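Lab notebook: predicted structure, single chain.

Context: the supervisor wants predicted structures on file for every construct in the current expression panel, including those that have not yet been purified. This is the next one on the list. No modifications to the sequence; it matches the entry in the shared construct table.
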Amino acid sequence: MKKMTTTIIESGKEKRISVWLDERTVEALEQANDAALTQQYIIDKYKSSLVDRSETRRHQSLDVSMDNGFEPIDERDYASVVLDGIEHDRLRAAFAILTNEQRELIRLVYYDGVPQKEIAERMGLDKTSVRDRLKTIYKKISRFLED
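Prediction complete. Output recorded below exactly as produced.
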């Protein structure tokens, strides 16, 4: 386990937040070499830990966390609550090793529901190129998760 820290602005003041991550996740984030992605991952993990702590230890009020600028995960993000833990961390780490272009392609296909044909037109590619890029992404994620 390794402690990772980032700085956020809260009520006009800088605040340092820290989370403990497994070494595989840290390595994947470092390989991604994307400071914004790493910061967002740390913030998401921190928010998730606030929710987890409020559920397991009733003495910490979720309202206090919200007053401090951290909102609980809403219904749209329910899957991240369910999948939170080692497997969720591994999947997030796997996505961290993808290039920005690869992450964008995954977002377009799976989150925005854009058909491959339309993506190909937007990118000036043929549909088979988009399909091949997706296959490359799947293999890359698969290899990472198998290790």
